[in-house]
Every structure is written in C-alpha cells, then in structure tokens.
C-alpha cells in the first residue's frame, strides 16, 4: 500500500477522536526519503510515493518508526529494516532529513529557522504530504507494548538509538600473516590469516538481560537436592533478572520489547530472547505464587502475542518440536500443582489453557517422549 493512499476515512475513528488527534497528535517528518522505499509506524508498513514527507495525528505515547530505503542505483534492491522507538508527547513535532550518502536518517538536526518554517506549515501546505496515523491498528499496538515504560526503553534501547535488523559488525584488526621457518622464501597465505577479526558493534546492540549469564542458584546451594531444585525451578534466576528493574511488571516490558523488535523490527536475536524469557517465566514455579499479579498480566501479554505471530513463523515453531507447547505445559503444571497459587490466577490460567487447546489443538496432558520412563528388558 502506498503511504499516499491512506485517506482520513480509512482510520475507523469518530469525529471527536479525529479532532483530538488533530489538536493533540504528534508529527514525524522524514524529508527526502527515496521514492519506493518502505516506511512504517508501529504495525503498519507503506511504500513511499512522490508526495510523502511524514506522519501526522500520532497519538501520545510509545511508537516505533521503521524504514528500509531503496537503493538509488538499483531500485530493485532495498536495505534491511532499521527502526527507532520514541515516546511522543502531545503535539510533539520531529523533523529529520534523509542522508543519501549513509542511506540512513541524518544525525544532523535542522537549524531553528528551517525547523520553524516546516512547523508553521504543518496544518497548511504540508498537510497533504503527511499520512495520518493508522488508527485502526492502534489498540493492537497498545496491547503489544503497554508494559514498555520509558524506564524499560532506556534500559533496553541500543546506545545508538536505532533497532537494526542486520547485526552491525566492526573489525578489530587484521591478524599478522603466519610466519614460515627461516628457510621459507615466502609467507603462507591462508583464509584464517587474511580474514579480519570481527565483533558486534556494541553501540548497536539491544541491551537485553543476558539470561544465560545470570546465576542459576545461590552460592550456598551446594547439596544435590538444592542443585536439582534450582535446575527445575528457575525462580532464583528470575529474581536475579528482576533486580534490573524498578517494578516486577517491567520484565513483561522486556518480553514485549523482544517480541515487537522481532515481529516488526525483524531482529532475529530478539526472537531468541523472547523464547528464552518465555522459558524462564514458565519454569519459575515458586515465582508464580510469589508474583500473582505479574503472572496474571503475563497470561494476557502472552495470549495477545500468540495472536500476532505470523503464520509462517508460527508453523515453524510448531514443527520444530513445538517450543510453545513445551513451555506452556511447564507453566500449566506449575500453576495447577501449586496449592499456594492465587485462585484468580488459576482461573485465568484455566481459561488460557482452554483457549489455546481449542484453537491450536495442542495436548498439554500427553507426556513428552523424552520424559517418558524408559523400559529396559533383561535378557
């Protein structure tokens, strides 16, 4: 869909809401983005036409602007997706220019006079060049991001401020050629000593909680029973992860951040983080009774995310040993077998279990093959 084919009457909002957005909504202008590029806000994606200069009527709150520029020399090639999060204030105006040389948003800001000229014409001559916010997707976006607070965003956002779908690498140095014995008249050239040492550009990394590096059990847990307990119940690790945040629900903000940066931002590492966080939350037995309110919210967050997983990815997850069935089986077992779990939470879990069972035909009662008892026959 062209970004210029979004007339007001496609927004599915009443006149009062439209009036409020016109008076309180924000603006995001991206000047000189090449025609044919892809640009979107939150869950919507468009192809840039000749008139496009940005978005208007952006509701206050968190939004994700994402873009993929077309190659100026080969219009059939389009760059990997890049995006940025921003908490829009009422009536906030952001104006940026496209840097064709770097094929990205310019780091240079407009001078005060130029900015003012654009701002003065937002409701005038520029209005026809601005696409209205796709309000019909707004509630879905809220459902997927409502726990990503400004604090959570500041913790997780890359230092560079941009979410990049392709990992950015930097060269450390070129290794020296392998020296041959003195009798050799030449140096041996190999693939290994011609290749540079590479590492991920640290400023471009999403600052996810490094779950694999968190302690799995307290230092004093040294006997076999403690080791077994903490290998099954990951509450201790979850508590360590929660120390990073001010509020318990902030961990759900990271779960949502990983999900939307994968689904919308197309970051594969975010998918791995999402799965790791689901596994941690579902396998933390004691935490379920310890944080009943957070787990009530978790059920809602997870159920809404399941509805948004693209079909091709969903099929891949299910076919690949069905990770989702595995984590949910652990989750439901931990809830229903724990007498300390709040009744309201158990009822919510029962409804959730019934919904996914009916919709996806998943069986949470069947014991996985790798957990079945092994029968050994004696000759």
Automatic annotation (TrEMBL):
Pfam families: AAR2 (PF05282), AAR2_1st (PF20981). Residues 208-365 form the AAR2 C-terminal domain. Gene3D superfamilies: 2.60.34.20, Aar2, C-terminal domain-like (1.25.40.550). Residues 25-158 form the AAR2 N-terminal domain. GO terms for biological process: spliceosomal tri-snRNP complex assembly. GO terms for cellular component: spliceosomal complex. CDD domains: Aar2_C (cd13778), Aar2_N (cd13777). Keywords: mRNA processing, mRNA splicing, Spliceosome. It comes from the Eukaryota. Component of the U5 snRNP complex that is required for spliceosome assembly and for pre-mRNA splicing. Belongs to the AAR2 family. Interacts with PRPF8 (via RNase H homology domain). Component of a U5 snRNP complex that contains PRPF8. This is Protein AAR2 homolog. It comes from Tetranychus urticae (Two-spotted spider mite). The gene is 107363587.
């Amino acid at each position: 869909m062209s970004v210029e084919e979004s007339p007001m009457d496609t927004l599915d909002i009443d006149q009062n809401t439209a009036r409020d957005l016109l008076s309180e909504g924000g603006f995001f202008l991206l000047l000189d983005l090449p025609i044919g590029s892809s640009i979107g806000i939150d869950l919507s994606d468009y192809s840039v036409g000749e008139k496009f200069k940005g978005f208007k009527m952006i509701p206050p709150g968190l939004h994700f602007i994402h873009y993929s520029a077309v190659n100026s020399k080969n219009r059939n090639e389009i760059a990997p997706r890049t995006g940025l999060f921003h908490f829009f204030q009422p009536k906030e105006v952001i104006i940026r220019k496209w840097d064709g040389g770097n094929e990205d948003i310019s780091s240079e800001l407009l001078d005060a006079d130029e900015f003012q000229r654009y701002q003065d014409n937002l409701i005038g001559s520029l209005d026809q060049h601005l696409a209205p916010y796709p309000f019909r997707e707004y509630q879905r976006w809220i459902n997927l991001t409502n726990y990503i607070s400004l604090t959570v965003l500041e913790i997780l956002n890359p230092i560079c401020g941009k979410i990049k779908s392709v990992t950015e690498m930097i060269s450390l140095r070129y290794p020296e050629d392998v020296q041959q014995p003195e009798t050799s008249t030449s140096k041996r050239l190999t693939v290994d000593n011609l290749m540079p040492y590479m590492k991920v550009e640290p400023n471009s990394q999403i600052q996810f909680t490094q779950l694999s590096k968190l302690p799995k059990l307290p230092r004093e847990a040294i006997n076999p029973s403690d080791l077994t307990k903490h290998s099954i119940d990951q509450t201790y690790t979850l508590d360590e992860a929660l120390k990073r945040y001010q509020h318990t629900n902030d961990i759900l903000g990271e779960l949502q951040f990983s999900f939307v940066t994968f689904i919308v931002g197309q970051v594969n590492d975010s998918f791995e983080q999402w799965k790791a966080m689901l596994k941690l939350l579902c396998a933390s037995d004691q935490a379920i009774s310890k944080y009943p309110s957070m787990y009530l919210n978790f059920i809602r967050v997870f159920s809404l995310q399941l509805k948004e997983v693209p079909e091709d990815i969903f099929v891949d997850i299910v076919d690949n040993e069905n990770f989702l069935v595995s984590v949910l089986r652990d989750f439901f077992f931990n809830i229903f077998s724990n007498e300390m779990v709040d009744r309201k939470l158990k009822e919510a879990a029962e409804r959730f279990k019934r919904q996914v069972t009916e919709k996806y035909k998943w069986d949470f009662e069947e014991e996985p093959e790798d957990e079945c008892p092994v029968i050994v026959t004696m000759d």
